[in-house]
Protein 1
Amino acid sequence: SELQYDSKKTALHRKLGVITHERWLTEVSALEKSLQEYVDKNGISFLNLTTIFREESRKKELNFPFDLHLNNNGNAVVAPPLVEFIEKNIQIPK
C-alpha cells in the first residue's frame, strides 16, 4: 500500500477522513509479518517490495496523485525486481 511508503498519500488520506498512522511508513505491517511467517514455514517464494518503494518514493512519485495505482515511475521500480524474482523462482519449461 502507498500508505506504507508515501507520506504525501498518508496526508491525503488523513484529509479524506481515513485513519492513518505515521508508523505505517516505517514499520513492518502485521500482514507482512504474517505473510513472511507463512512463506517461511511453507517454503514459498515471496517478493516484498516495501523497502524498495520506501527508498524510491523519496526520489520520485510512484503513484498517480489521487489514485493508488502505480504510474510510469512506479512500474519502472517494480519491473526489475519482479523479473529477477520470476527468473529465480519460476521454472519455465523449454
Protein 2
Amino acid sequence: DEYTTLECRVNATGDIQSLSKFIYDAEKDPLAVKVDSIEISSRDNNGQQLSLVLQVSGLVLNQAQ
C-alpha cells in the first residue's frame, strides 16, 4: 500500500467564538484533512456553552521501500 488513512476525533467545549476559531484554524491549516462529520450542541439552557465533536481523516504516505 502507498498510503494509510489516519482518523481522529476531537471533543471540545467552549463558547461560539472559541469553537468557531478552532474550526476556522483547522480549515486554514496547510495539513490537508477531510472533515468527515461535525456536531455542535448546547451544554446549557442559554446556548452559551457548546459542545463540539469533530471527526477528520487524512492520508499518511508510506515511504517507498
Protein 3
Amino acid sequence: MVSKHDERLLMRFYEALNGGQFEAAMDLCNQEVEVYQPPEVVAAMPPRGHRDVSRYLRQFFASWHMYEPEPEGFVESGDKVVALVHLRARGLGSRFDIEEEIADIFEVDRGKISKLRLYVHRDTALPENGND
C-alpha cells in the first residue's frame, strides 16, 4: 500500500509539472534524483541531479503542444510507486489530441523522489506484468 505521504508528494509533483513549475518539482526530489531509462536504452546517460533532471523535464514538456497528466491512483510495486495517469496531450505540429491511460514510475527515498520514469504503458508498469 502506498503511504499517504508518498501520495501527497507525487500529487504535488504533478501539480508543479502541470503548472510549468519545474523548480518546485525539483524541490520534491532529492539532490541525486535520476530519470531512469528502459533497459533497451543504453546509449544515453540518464539525467541525474536537479539541474539535469529539470532540463530533461523542460525539454520533455516542450516537445508537446499540450501535455496534461492527471494521476488517478497509485500502486506500490516493490520499491517503486506506479502512478496511474490519465493523459491528455497533443504533440508539436499535430492536429490530433491524444487521450490515454498511461503510467509513470517513481522511487521515493526519505520523503523525496529519487527516480522517475514518465510515459510508460500501463501493462509494462503494473506489478502483475513485471516492470523494469
Protein 4
Amino acid sequence: MFPTIGHLIHLRLPIPTLGVFVALAFSAAYYTFLLELKRRQVVDHPKRLMDKMLIVCGIMGLIGAAFFSSLEQPQLFAYNGLNYYGALIVGSTTYFIIAARHGIRFATAADIGSPGMMLAYGIGRLGCHL
C-alpha cells in the first residue's frame, strides 16, 4: 500500500496518492472527451463545453461518491472515504443531463463519453488500490 507519493517513489513527499490519481483521471477524461467532441463536431465550441462539464461533473461525482459512501456506513459526521460507484453514477448522469441541454442526443453523448469515462474510472481505481 502506498498512501502517499513519497511511499511510491521512496522520497519524503506527503502528497496523497489517491488525490494525485483523481487529478490524473480528471485530466485524462478532459483530454479524451475534448478529442471526441472535436472529432464528432457536435458543438461549436467544444473546449468551452468541456470546461463546464469537467467542473460540474467532477463536483457532482465527488458529492455522489461521498453520498453513496454515507449510505454504506451511516455514521453521523464521519468521513469514511469515497464510493467509486457513486462517483460513476452521479458523474455520468450529470454528464448526460448537460449533454442533453446542449442538444446532444443520448446515443451520441454515450459514444463521445464512453472512452473518457472508462479511462478516468480505471485511473481513479488505480489510486484506490495504491
